[in-house]
Design goal:
It is a single chain. Mean pLDDT is 83; it is low at 1-13. This protein has three helices and 15 strands. The chain is α+β, with helices and mostly antiparallel strands. 17% of the residues lie in helices and 45% in strands. A four-stranded antiparallel beta sheet has the order 1-10-7-6. Strands 4-5-9-8 form a four-stranded antiparallel beta sheet. The protein has a three-stranded antiparallel beta sheet with strand order 11-14-15, with no helix packed on it. The protein has helices spanning 7-13, 22-34, 72-79, and strands spanning 16-19, 39-43, 48-52, 54-58, 63-67, 83-90, 93-100, 103-107, 110-116, 121-125, 131-133, 141-144, 152-155, 158-160, 163-165.
């Protein structure tokens, strides 16, 4: 019996959306700002994590403003980059976009970073496998102890074939 090609089926069944409209991109960024959704970017070949949130979106000038991150080293690496990829989770979807031309600015009296409005955004299902929430009365914990990372303990929130949420 010939082998079935399931690749095309997987690609169409996985919800993926490429957003190119500047109006839609601005609307998504405004929603992220309103919900205070954390954004992350990996810098210096994945060695540094930059964490921020959208503070302001100006669709007319084509600029967005994000908060300074808590790491001075990550902020410096960000400002020395021409372009970074920002990621976030929005509901059950993963969203990512390129942020270019970071410059320091002041927003509402505090330090911030300004970028050009992204030209395109990608939104896709972040999980292929169903997740099962761990009931609060079941204290399932995970202990992490590996080289280069300070050992820590985390509570497992959900579990599935695709991984564990802590």
């Amino acid at each position: 019996m010939p082998e079935k090609n399931t690749t095309a089926k997987r690609q169409t069944s996985s919800r993926q959306l490429l957003i190119r409209s500047q109006i839609e991109i601005a609307a998504v960024l405004v929603a992220l700002a309103n919900d205070k959704v954390p954004l992350t970017a990996y810098l210096e070949d994945g060695e540094l994590l930059f964490v921020t949130r959208v503070l302001h979106v100006d669709a007319e000038t084509g600029r967005i403003v994000v908060d300074y991150g808590p790491s001075k080293r990550a902020n410096a690496a960000l400002l020395s980059s021409r372009m970074i990829t920002l990621h976030c989770e929005r509901g059950r979807m993963h969203l990512q976009f390129l942020a270019s031309e970071p410059t320091e600015t002041i927003f509402n009296g505090g330090p911030a970073v300004q970028f050009d409005l992204p030209e395109v955004m990608v939104q896709y299902d972040r999980r292929r496998h169903r997740r099962v929430r761990i009931p609060p009365h079941v204290p399932l914990r995970c202990f992490v102890d590996c080289p280069g990372v300070k050992p820590f303990e985390a509570r497992v929130a959900d579990i599935g074939r695709g991984g564990v949420g802590t």
